[in-house]
Amino acid sequence: MSSKISRLMRIINxxxxxxxxxxxxxxxxxxVSERSIxxxxxxxxxxxIPVTSNEGRGNGYTFASIFAMxxxxxxxxxxxxxSLLPGVxxxxxxxxxxxxxxxxxxxxxxxNKEQRSQQQSISKLVTLIQSGKPQNKIENSNKFLLPxxxxxxxxxxLKVKYExxxxxDINDRFIDPYYLIPRESKFxxxxxxxxxxxxxxxxxxxxxxxxxxxxxxxKRQLDLQKYYQNTWSIIKGDKKxxxxxxxxxxxxxxxxxKELFATPKLTxxxxxxxxxxxxxxxxxxxxxWVRQYGPDAEIIEPVEYRVMMQEELRKWADMYKEK
Length: 323
Description:
By secondary structure, the protein is of the alpha+beta class. It has 3 domains: 128 residues, Arc Repressor Mutant, subunit A; 85 residues, SH3 type barrels (Roll), CATH 2.30.30; 79 residues, Alpha-Beta Plaits, CATH 3.30.70. It is 40% helix and 23% strand. It contains 12 helices and 11 strands. The protein has a 5-stranded antiparallel sheet. A hairpin with a 2-residue loop joins strand 4 and strand 5.
């Protein structure tokens, strides 16, 4: 899904930057067939994006009427993250709060007419190519989604009260919101934290208070993919841990079908087992994932994690001993 979104966004930018560009050129730049480009152009038209060719199919393409991507430096990931907002919460929030869609439209009304029209087109576009539901349920943090999303649109700094994971510290801080990220039925916010003077990932359910300020921030350069490089899901660490895990044939297929945020090296063996190798900057989320496979997953390296698993198993065995 993400690759198609990226290609469609790129086609929009290419047509915008080079009016009259031909399908053959688009296909070459995007490294797909002309047939794929024609399908993409149809999808764009169906999404309400006014792409047209005055000379007919196969000739130069332009935008009819006034249309422009806004902002021009908005990445496909950022557009997708915000555009998915209604779709992510729709199944859960709309049913209990019929005013959500109206509120979302009011956020988009902060743009001028052309900008608002373009954003609505992106929402339709993402709906067209979206497969399945992003999440089946959303945790109870919906009350902060709208003010955060609105501040993302306006580039407004937020004043928040946040409870740390350990729940031992509650502090006030100013943050600049960049991305809303759905992960495993939870929402996270990637933002620049003025207190830490660096980017931090915040879980929405841990916000106790969110207020928009009058401060307007200028976005810093941020490559989302690079930022989360070697991160298993959402928790970003500063380590470099090389894991080698052997999955037996009973679960190997499911592991290979799993959509992962990090890229492992996979080696299939003749007996059906699978060797899974990956380097990560944090261990917590990965170990939680490995544990769900029980005895069907064996940690080979690092050795200290094998020892840790042995200790856990001893505790389990002691717990279930007959008394």
